[in-house]
Every structure is written in structure tokens, then in C-alpha cells.
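Assess the record.
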Amino acid sequence: MLYRAAGLHLRYAEAANRAGYPFLASCFLNSGIRNERYRFTRPDGSYYPDDSCYITGTSPFDPYPFAYRFDARYPRQWEQNGGVRGRVFMPALSFPAGLTTTLDSIQWLEQQIVRESALELAFEGHRWGDLVRVARRMNKEGRDGFSFLFNDNIKKKYERANIPAPAFTADETSWYLPFYE
């Protein structure tokens, strides 16, 4: 199966976000990690030591786990990553000032990733799987995944078209096509 780079970046951003690294996820969503190399300069203009800093949301001395570690000071495969929005010169999304915890940032960024995925991967067949995956995760966390799936994303499309919406319930088994009927 072939994927576009934007699709992979959005999936990786979602994974990094859910792993608790919303800053890294926002880099992939916005302008990429290549622009983060300048975060490693000290106030006097010198660089931090080579083995001491990786991109993190807290400090240069708090490295990410291996799967999320990108040292953008060095030319590697990811050096030219321009991010999903930066690749088409769209303005970066920044975290609102009212987000006080990492969980708030994760939940806000999750909605932005779902929205960006809808725009970037339109008509490629990814939308329903994305919506169901996020709604199921929300249900497992005790949030209202059904409201996200049906009220926020499906119902309004049908209302605008003056068509009755399909009969969905909060039961996750009603979110799939019947397999043995």
C-alpha cells in the first residue's frame, strides 16, 4: 500500500500526540521539525552540547524516547520535513492560551489533526476510519465519542443536504457496515 507523505505525517503526529508529546506533533502538523534547530542555541548564541539536546516541549535536557527523537541540528532524512501545513505555506496553528495542562493540549491538538486530515486527505478514503478511531479512543477515555462522531461530524452534513441522517447509536457496533447480512 502506498501512502502520501502528508498522510504519514498526520498519522505520526497523531501517534506522538497520543503518546504525550503535543509539541512534537504540532511540529509535524505545522512547519516541520527542520525549523526547530534554532531552539538549541543558548542566550549567548552558542549551541548546547551534541549529546544533551533533542527537541522537547520542556527543556533541551529532557530527551524524547527513541521513537520520537529527532535531532534537527544534523542533516538526516527528516531535515527537509516541511510539515503538513508548512508544505503549502499555510499559517501554523498555535496552542490557545487557555490550555493549562498537557492533557488539554493533547485533546485540542487531536481535534486539529482530525480537521487537517479531513482537508489534506479529502476523497482518499481515510475519513471514516479516522473518525471511528478517534471516537472509540474518546469513549475509552470516558469522553463522548458518539457526540464527536455523529453530532460534530455526520449530522450537520445531512442537515445541510436536507436528508435524514442514518440511525446511529452510542453502541460502537452500529458504526460499522453489517458483515453477515
About this structure: Residues 21 and 65 are 10 Å apart (CA to CA).
